[in-house]
Amino acid sequence: VSRQEQGAVFSREAMQRLVERVVGRSRADGCQVTITAGVTGNIRFAANQLSTAGVVENATVEVESAFGRRHAAVSTNDLSDEALRRAVRASEALARLAPDDPEWLPELSPQRYVPVEAWFESTAQLSAADRAAAARIALDMARAAGDVEAAGFLVSRAGAQAIANKAGLFAYHRRTSANYTLTVRTSDGTGSGWAAADHPDVRRLDFAAVARRATEKARASREPVALEPGRYTVILEPQATGDLVQLMSFAMDARLADEGRSAFVGPGGGNRIGERIVDARVTLLSDPADADLRARPFDDQGLALGRQVWIADGVLRQLFYTRYWAQRHNRPPTGTPTCLRLEGGTQSLDELIASTERGVLVTRLWYLRSVDPRTILYTGLTRDGTFLIEGGRLARSVRNFRFNDSPLFLLSNLEGLGRTERIAGTEAGGHIAMPAVKARDFHFTSLSEAV
Amino acid sequence: VTDRRTFLKQAGTAAAAVAAASAGARTAGAGTPQGPAMDAATRDLLLAALDAARGAGAAYADARIARRRQNSIFTREQQIRNVVESESLGCGVRVLVDGTWGFAATRRLTRQAVTAAAREAVGVARANRAARDRAVEWLPAPAVRNGSWRSPYRLDPFAVSMEEKATLLLRANAEALRVPNVRFVSSALFFVKEEKSYANTDGSLIAQTLIRTLPSFTATAVAPDRSDFQSRGNVVAPMQRGWEYVLEADLPGNAGRWGEEAAQKLAARPVEPGRHDLVLDPGNLWLTIHESIGHPTELDRAMGYEANYAGTSFLAPPERMLGRLRYGPEFMNVQGDRSQEGGLSNCGWDDDGVAPDEFLLIRDGVLHDYQTTREQADWLRWWYERQGRPVRSHGCSYADSWASVAFQRMPNVSLLPGERDLSWDDLIAATDRGIAIVGDGSYSIDQQRYNAQFGGQLFYEIRDGRIAGMLKDVAYQIRTPDFWNSLDLLGGRSAYRLGGSFFDGKGQPSQSNAVSHGTPPARFRQVTVISTGRRA
To answer: Among candidates B189, B198, B133, which has minimal Cα distance to B163?
Structure first.
């Protein structure tokens, strides 16, 4: 299949035709079809050697059929007439056998979506040779330097998603993406640095700048000294902020709070919407049309997503309401957001460092896992560049720490905000823009020897 | 109460004894049910892909046509949340051209599409040739002419009706909801069937079918004044077994107890942080083994190949570690295999076409080997030759779908039981003061596998050899070698159990591996315990 043919597969018209081939066969009361199609290419290297690379083309059709309040979904990646017919019939047969779901709602009616431009031919046309050339920039730099080893991954994708139903809903979003992450380790094994870039337009990825930044971090982080674990003022770089703050979104479901099982439980019942929950400088929002984010403007049900403020000036304004929970509480549904932005301040990272008498600068966080959902307490570790700040300057490299802390505590103990930027590599993924954050009393509970 | 020295002696095992006593029943050999036969159309597509790869210049190629079926049902309280069946089918072709890898995959199962994928894979390899200066050393392996293997199961879960599955879950949910303060229950059944047809240019042709089963259940209790909520979950280990395993797990019969345990946690005492002796049950310890032994003994990690994502390993470089690094006490032996009964990573042949073997990663407490593939085993040639062992892959290659490239993944990695058949109760009775932990909870470990933190499901105070009430907010922090060297009591064969994960992530693009870890209960001395019950 040529690239042009592949591109045609992702067009709005092609998706509409495919939807019709599914919905047209439905005999159920309701039928939602979700199509995800794309071509992904990647290249991977480590220990200054290229390791693997590949190209994968796939397309998946999921059909959810409903009879009354009974529903079931079947998915396939075979787009032949016979396979699509089988998928529709199988979902109908399963739905007929399913018990009633008292929370099932009638199909979503047609929505209006904000336009989001996330397709760039520069990325869609990227070839295996282009990816290899991009990888060579860091590989050549590391080999020539002699004192470092590079490990990295570049993945580019062009694809589209469509969600449609029998009630006439049709949501369509096509996007390209390019994501590059790079770890540079010093040959003496004592230093490690990381840098990354992510954008729908591959021309916005500066491969040489990423390589320089990761290499500088690696060299600067050599021969770390051990600090006592304890409470420290920290400056989290935007990546580290995103690693932790993004996790709040998994705790922001209104229903969990109303049911008494989240950090947002209201003391006398209900939830904490309207309460001040963090520092007054904190504003957290989602906006698919934001030029830094360019996210899908609808959720997995096809519900339109616009600009939605979750926390404004430190006050919880809104939690995530599904259609069902919103209806029960007579509120508009928010759906589940596809992106997240923490508004920043005006200070540069250097200014935040200069304002700090003693503290720890954190490049990124790693292996974050929930410890206590009552407080959104997470544990995890610093990685790839952790430095002691003394007298407003980076004093030296320090050993990595394990932390046990919560994004709610972090944002309550706020001392300063940097400028917001799109970040590239949170563990949870997605479209995230975050500033550097300076906060007091961040809880490091033990040391790690890991480099 | 028996003192530590006596128990060390009683629990001690020699390597020779362990080799004979390696854990679990075997599924390989005569007991293996007849596997599937490869259909002619699939074989023709695979051979066409290999021909195209060779014709385009590949020195080696393998092709996999894999169908992955998933069946799942999710419930909460007395209702069904979702019923989902999915199927993904396609062909992936991997080629070695001039010592460089290339891979391409397509969902289109036509002769034209799979040969195009083969040629594209060669194109990718040629594009990459310029970016590598060390050729892949691909170890020979015997051809498997007509291999066929099926994971053992009595009842195919894909043939069980959705109604039966729903009824079972809703009955279990109802039992837990009877318990005071238990307000919410979520439960699910998740089944995977992999049907893989594989061919390589060595002449191997292999067809395999694998079924894996994951029952899940979580009960949540909420304090009447909304000041606290506590959950009990991770109650049943996933297994490479069929519907019979779900029936044996008896969710409806056990759900009331699980609900009561959730409710009891509301009244549990907060833990005193500090150093405590820990008695860990297999449901907790499997995950600690996974993170602190399973991952650091992956050879690709030790050699830096996962530096940009999953991380490296403190067991590096191998030449300074093998035969030298003391992992734990002399009675500690850890085995890699893909054959113990129910083990999630079991298979007849790996995705390099190699029959996996059983091997000791840790022998008598000392690092003895790493997990390997055909690409990697040669990196340890010096070690194997010094010991007079063959240089061969341990069969640890796996790709999680047709669209994924095969690479080194974890086999079942298990702590072998002690010589004496000590039970959980024996370990508790032998402990003056300590904490007993049941089930797995939160887990996190650094990128070289030194510093880890683990929670659990249920925590009990031990006083004078007895359980003395429930604790909460417990997490233990370890430094891997210190922790394993604090192991002083090992349970026996009767107490040996498998835990496991369906979703072990590694690689870029990230792939998911299913893996089991067998272990008896075990005791560890003076481990750092923190309280996670912060309020600000």
So the answer is: B189
In terms of CA atoms, which chain A residue is nearest residue B68?
A76
Could A183 and B307 be called an inter-chain contact, meaning their C-beta atoms sit closer than 8 Å? yes
Dihedral (CA of B317, A380, A226, B327) sign: negative
Strand ranges, E, within A229-326: 230-236, 284-286, 308-312, 315-316
| DSSP state for residue B417 in the 8-state scheme | P
Going by C-alpha positions, the residue among B17, B6, B22 that lies closest to residue B415 is B22
Q: How far is A97 from chain B (nearest CA, A)?
A: 6
Segment A23-55, tens digit of pLDDT = 999 999 999 999 999 999 999 999 999 999 999
- For residue A127, the chain B residues in CB contact (below 8 A) are 127
The separation between CA B323 and the C-alpha centre of its own chain, rounded to angstroms, equals: 25
The pLDDT, as a whole number, for residue A103 is 96
Give residue-wise pLDDT tens across range B116-131. Answer: 999 999 999 999 988 7
pLDDT digits (tens, 9 = 90+) for A61-115: 999 999 999 999 999 999 999 999 999 999 999 999 999 999 999 999 999 999 9
d(CA A364, CA A221) in angstroms, rounded, equals: 13
Write down the pTM of the prediction. Answer: 0.95
Are A25 and A81 in contact by the 8 Å Cβ rule? The answer is no
For the stretch B33-72, what's the b/e string if a residue is b when 16 or more beta carbons lie within 10 angstroms of its beta carbon?
eebeebeeebbebbebbbebbbebebebbbbbbbbbbbbb
Instruction: Decide if A185 contacts B304 (C-beta within 8 A).
Output: yes
CA A309 to chain centre: 18
**Closest Cα to residue B488, out of B427, B398, B411, B421?**
B427
Contacts of B124 in chain A (CB under 8 A): 53-55, 128
Q: Which of A55, A92, A279, A405 to mutate to test the interface with B (most CBs of B within 10 A)?
A: A55
Contact criterion met (CB below 8 Å) for B417 and B23: yes
Q: How far apart are alpha carbons B115 and B111 in whole angstroms?
A: 6
Q: Is A100 helix (H, G, I), strand (E, B) or coil?
A: coil
**What is the 3-class SS of B112-160, one letter each residue?**
HHHHHHHHHHHHHHHHHHCCCCCCCCCCCCCCCCCEEEECCCCCCHHHC
Mean pLDDT, rounded, for B76-87: 95
**Chain A residue with the nearest C-alpha to that of B125:** A53
| Cα dihedral A432→A434→A439→A441 (10° resolution) | 10
Give the C-alpha separation, A111 to A355, whole Å: 48
Kindly state the tokens that stand for B99.
Answer: 């010592």
Q: Which residue has the tokens 């001040």?
A: A276
Q: Taking a C-beta distance cutoff of 8 angstroms, is the pair B408, B397 a contact?
A: yes
List, for residues A153-198, the tens digit of each pLDDT value.
999 999 999 999 999 999 999 999 999 999 999 999 999 999 999 9
Task: State which amino acid sits at residue B432.
Answer: D
ipTM at complex level: 0.95
- Pair A42, A53: CB distance under 8 Å: yes
